[in-house]
Amino acid sequence: MPAEVGQAAPDFTLVGTDLKAVSLKDFAKKQVVLAFYPAAFTGVCEKELCTFRDALNDFVGANTAVVGVSVDSPFANKEFAAKNGLNFPLLSDLTRDVIRKYDVVFNDLAGVKGFTVAKRSVFVIDRSGTIRYRWVAPEPKVEPDYAEVAAAVKKLG
After folding, report:
1. What pLDDT digit, counting tens, does each position of 8-59 carry?
2. Which of 17, 44, 65, 112 could form a disulfide with 78 if both were Cys (CB 3.0 to 4.6 A apart)?
3. Which CATH number fits domain 27-156: 3.30.565.10, 3.60.15.10, 3.40.30.10, 3.40.47.10?
4. Catalytic positions, written as ranges
5. For the chain, what are the domain ranges?
6. Mind listing the pLDDT tens digit for each residue in 60-106?
7. DSSP per-residue letters across 79-133
């Protein structure tokens, strides 16, 4: 069952780039922009996460955390974050449990049989843990409407 607007956001605990566990509930006092991305070091993912990085001050001012999730290893995510100056958590869904919970599974990325990744998608979660915005790309090269994401955050106040 997909994680839909108005439903409780599925909780998770994933490993970050520092190899420490990070849970969704760690952000309980904040709103969360949860950005799933297919693969570190790919052009569209780089552009998307750098756009979120550049908007981070606006989000922080709105008491909102940005969190990136991919199936990449924490080591790849750490290098990806360093290369792009990403100053928010990048979490590794190595078991692909979280992408299943959020119903954002993309099979056979780039035609590579068995290469299952996250669909590019964005969820805005309010302080009570309820999903207030959901967007899933129709295909990996499509970026989110960043103004729409910002408006969803702003609407929560």
Report:
1. 999 999 999 999 999 999 998 899 999 999 999 999 999 999 999 998 778 8
2. 17
3. 3.40.30.10
4. 45
5. 27-156
6. 788 899 999 999 999 999 999 999 999 999 999 999 999 999 999 99
7. HHHHHHT--S-EEE-TT-HHHHHTT-EE-SGGG-TT--EEPSEEEEE-TTSBEEE
